[in-house]
Design a protein that fits this description.
Blueprint (H helix, E strand, L loop, with lengths): L15 E6 L10 E6 L2 H11 L4 E5 L15 E12 L5 E16 L7 E6 L18 H14 L6 H6 L2 H11 L4 H9 L3 H20 L7
Parallel strand pairs: 1-3
Antiparallel strand pairs: 1-6, 2-5, 3-4, 4-5, 5-6
């Protein structure tokens, strides 16, 4: 899914954005995250975003934060609303397409129902290059770890579709959909490049396989 408004430099991105804290939700550049919006504050956030830049920052709450406005992880991803539908019962069903990662520099005063942050994209300007890094990915290792994980967890996988999926889309989708904990998802998000993210994905998946099967059991 391509966006109608491509961004060439980080200067084209707003320095203050609404943020949606959602545990376990990971959005990566050029990844696609479906969302079901029903809370009043987030409905207002979507309305405001649609009326301006169509951009929402996805960020995970910090671990063990149970208060109404929990501390936020320092790095998130800004995404553009690329699909949206009204359900007729007061909800929005939408898709965010990842644009660029950011680092939170400050949280703005709460003059809205939802939270807003000042953000800095400078550490992640490479996210906008949109160049293929597939040569740096050990694709066979990624697919083998997925095969072992699916076997250990009795999952059905469309391997023909996996083989057709480009490297970046495959790695990002597996990172976003994987049943990883908050710290693991945050580490995948903050990986410096696609190659490092793919290596980390394999390592985390192999650890999950060991937990699923037990240390003494091996998969063929």
């Amino acid at each position: 899914m391509r966006i109608n408004r491509p961004y060439s430099t980080i200067d084209e991105l707003p320095s203050s954005i609404p943020v949606f804290p959602l545990p376990g939700a990971l959005l990566l550049p050029r990844g696609h995250l479906p969302l079901n919006i029903f809370e009043k504050r987030y409905l207002a956030m979507i309305d405001d975003a649609l009326a301006s830049h169509r951009l929402i920052g996805m960020v995970q709450p910090a671990a063990d934060a149970q208060e109404p406005a929990p501390a936020l992880m320092p790095v998130g991803t800004v995404g553009r609303i690329t699909q949206i539908a009204e359900t007729g019962d007061g909800r929005y069903v939408l898709t965010l397409t990842g644009v660029c990662r950011f680092r939170i520099t400050a949280e703005n005063s709460p003059d809205k129902l939802y939270r807003q942050c000042n953000v800095d994209y400078s550490s992640f300007a490479c996210d906008l290059l949109n160049k293929s890094e597939e040569k740096g990915i050990d694709r066979s290792a990624v697919i083998e770890s997925l095969r072992r994980y699916s076997q250990a967890n009795h999952m059905k996988v469309d391997w023909k579709e996996i083989e057709k999926t480009p490297g970046e889309a495959l790695v990002n989708a597996l990172c976003m959909m994987g049943a990883f904990n908050l710290a693991e998802k945050q580490a995948l998000l903050e990986a410096p490049d696609l190659s490092a993210r793919a290596e980390m994905l394999v390592a985390i998946t192999e650890f999950a396989i060991k937990k699923s099967c037990g240390e003494g059991q091996k998969l063929q």
